[in-house]
Amino acid sequence: MSTPAAPRSLAEALRNRDDASLAALLRARPDLITPVPTDLTQLATRAGTRASVVRALERLDRFALQTAEALAVAADPAGYEELLGLMSGDGGDPAVAAALPRALATLREQALVWGGDDRLRLVRTARELLAPSPQHPSPTGLGPTVQEATAGMSPGRIQEIVTAVGLPSTHDSVSAVASLTALFGDRARMAALLAEASPESREVLDRLVWGPPYGQVTADPAPRLRWLLDRGLLLPTAPGTVVLPREVALHLRGGRAHRAVEPLPPALEVTAAHRPQVVDATAAGQAYTALATVEELLKDWDEGGPTVLRAGGLSVRDLKRTAVALDVSEPVAAFWVELAYAAGLLASDGEADERYAATPAYDEWLELPAAERWAQLAQSWLTATRTAGVVGGRDAKERTLSALGPGLDRSAAPEVRHRVLSLLAGLPEGASPSAESVLARLRWERPLRGPQQNDDLRGRLATWALSEAEMLGVTGRGALSAHGRALLGAPAPAPAPKDTEPAQEGPGDKLPVHHVPLVVEPLTPTEQATASATAGRLLAPLLPEPLDHVLLQADLTAVAPGPLKRPLADMLDVLADVESKGGATVYRFTPGSVRRALDAGRTATDLHAFLSAHSRTPVPQPLTYLIDDVARKHGHLRVGAASAYVRCDDDTMLNEIMADKRAAALRLRRLAPTVLATQADPATLLDGLRAMGFAPAAESAEGDVLITRADAHRTPPRTAPEPVPDGPPTPDATLLAAAIRAIRAGDLASTAPRKQTPSTSPTGDLPRTTPAETLATMQAAVLTGEALWIGYVNAEGAASQRVIAPIRVEGGFVTAYDHTADEVRTYPLHRVTGVAELADD
């Protein structure tokens, strides 16, 4: 059986792959399929473009990237043994030898490397990006080769170096450079040469060996430098600049391309171990607090929240006010605001005086059971690209980034959150890792390159993900909860061995945990819905049951010993003010809060009945007196629009108002014994009189009392913000199968052998024929049943080549079976640029 010939190009290497291998490539590099390439040659060309290669390199783990960097400084092509030597050095490294096949397979799968083990070739664009150059130093710290460094050197100077190292002179520079390269690559001869160097000269080499390989020299170098320059151990690259040749550096390094090779990911360091029940209970408590915080936020904005800045978002002052209202720090307040926005519960109302308010979806959300409400919040957090952590920072134009404003999307955020939780899911139940070890693991999986080294965005995203997951109740005490694992779609942890002691509560020994990395694939929308429902079912039994009662106390307070049922909580929010929160909520009744309930249309009788029905203790007499007293005064004064007026049947009360110094700001004047008027608007007049201790009621133009119900201001229907994708989405199995079928068919059309005619060229360009020749060839093919190769231009002007079997030619159209598309199609003849017959074989 004959061995297939070695591929001569990346396109040929892709052509030799099976469909599963092509699917793996397109899944790893989805940008290659947007749009679908016409054939494998176009796929190979696209895989070698700079933008695509940069994106692929950024998604390699540290060891795979180090392997690519080693290939960039190796010969082209390089053998597997040469690559192994660059990775493990002359002494070898069993861990590197065991991990190298996996890294090489990753590079091959992603079409960054092609060829057999005896002729490994790094894609040219990747070599240009990773190979050393003065403008872009290599991460390996290596410099140019002897051949590259001596490219501009005079032949006489090269011969002087050859003679100085004891090599015979040659007749040309090419052979001289080759003999010098061979010397520097020979371990024994190089050791003998360096043995002659002085300690000072060796010290110079030691400073340059791990990079950067460039140094500065004066016009009259010191003897230690002169000795190195004379023997080519340092080569000049520019006036005053010298470089350590790559071959010399590799000898000094013992053959290693990198100072530190990391074939294995760093282990996670467990800092504490908790019982799973404790983790789940702690996370459930945080989940309940999260729900209460979001409700409190949006309830505070019921009558219209802060105004929207002209550039969009919350002002710094409004964010501070929100933080004070929620009793949290400003960054935490920004997180809750952004979470409500991501879940579609909060938006701008679109009015002329644009404000933020709850959406109609918020009312629907409130009707859901608590566990389902949490699952909706957690799922929104997991998939959102808006990142609250950057609030307060600066954008590219040095503008401050505000909460709910533009510029907060970070496309990598969902992937980082998902990966952080996956790492936690791979630990034993109840294990809490250190944040430093999680960040080290993520940096190994996606090492920083180029400009990213100055801005570790993934590291910051991971840090925020850990703290946000704890606040949201996805984790408890730093460990992943059972409902958090279900939300992620991760499999249930394997049961512990019978001879293993149960996890103890408290700090761990900070020992690294070596485990098989858990890879949890992102979920489809259907799978996400299922995972959210499962997470809600697991959380529901852990949440406290809502109560239908409070404990009234004689100091005009009510204590809610737990969460309250929705109607009771809503009514208490109107009738009383929240004084303190925690395990139990304390409400305080004040004249203002009772008046608020009366303004909402309640009567004193309604309030007495409500308190009697929902209190486990007798209604205290002071509270009864407070309600009756406020109700007796409520509505005795009537305020309407003049700009505004006050009327009262009791002119004594109006005299009291006019005599009060606090009424001076209202500028009241008497129109009649029972009527006062002012230029202030009714709302200002109402607030002023209430501040003076009165209980006025607003009335309409007809004289009817206006009831201020507790109905909240809502925005028109709004959709949640769409996540900003990090590049093209990963194609699903159906799209992959269709794309591969189209690429294979297009490749068959482009590589099918053709008969040589005057209209075809040996280079395989599209055929060019006259309309008469095209028509005649088409008609002949209909009679013979032969397939044809055609050039075709579609309505958008895109040219392509196809293999068709004509069935019918009439009316200026040809109907044919298109082998490229694997279906019967009709083509206008005027769009066919040329036609050629396929070869018989």
How does this structure look, described?
It is a single chain. 43% of the residues lie in helices and 13% in strands. The chain has 841 residues and is α+β, with helices and mostly antiparallel strands. The strands form 8 sheets. The chain has a 5-stranded mixed sheet, with helices on one face. A 5-stranded antiparallel sheet has the order 25-24-23-22-26, sandwiched between helices. It has a 4-stranded antiparallel sheet with strand order 13-14-16-15. α17 crosses α18. The longest helix has 25 residues, at 276-300. The protein is elongated and about 125 Å long. Mean pLDDT is 85; it is low at 496-503, 513-517 and 759-764. One of its GO terms (molecular function) is helicase activity. Residues 773-835 form the WYL domain. Residues 550-672 form the Helicase XPB/Ssl2 N-terminal domain. This is Helicase-associated domain-containing protein.
